[in-house]
Amino acid sequence: MIAYADTSFVVPLYRVETNSAAAAKAMSRLNAPVMLSPLGELEVHNAFQLSVFRGEIDATAAARKIQLFAEDLANGVFQIHPVPAGTLYPLAIELAQRHSTTLGTRSLDLLHVAAAMILKADLFLSFDERQKKAAKAEGVKVSS
After folding, report:
1. For the whole prediction, is pTM greater than 0.85?
2. In angstroms, how far is CA 101 from the centroid of its own chain?
3. What is the pLDDT of residues 28-62, one digit of tens each?
4. Tell me: the pLDDT tens digits for 70-102?
5. 34 with 79: CB under 8 angstroms?
6. Which domain does 84 fall in, by range?
7. Residue 34: beta bridge partners?
8. Domain at 23, CATH number
9. Is residue 37 domain-resident?
10. N or C: which end of the chain has fewer CB within 10 A?
11. Whole-number Å distance between alpha carbons of 45 and 29
12. Residue 144 falls inside a structural domain
């Protein structure tokens, strides 16, 4: 099974959040690396830096979480898969035209869904309900 994860799924694996247990459980059921796009990698890094800005963690804790994420990348838990911009953005625009008026999807949500589709993911891992609805509408199985 080819799984693609967005940031709402990845970040709770490294800090305690409402979805941390569900993310860990889903990861334990997968037997292959989980794909991320370069956007996802950026968002993971930025999420921890924003946590410092918001006073939720200190810089040392953020650096440690980023290091743990880097170790998981190095160990093959996650794999970064580049997605050609010339394919990604036109598909995201199509998704916006099909779904944003009814689902309220945001641009970055659609970039993740488009990346998952381009990478031919069988499973879309996310805790963002609008994003999951868009993926499901496009025929991609979503995490429950």
Report:
1. yes
2. 22
3. 999 889 999 999 999 999 999 999 999 999 999 99
4. 999 999 999 999 999 999 999 999 999 999 999
5. yes
6. 3-138
7. 3, 78
8. 3.40.50.1010
9. yes
10. C
11. 25
12. no
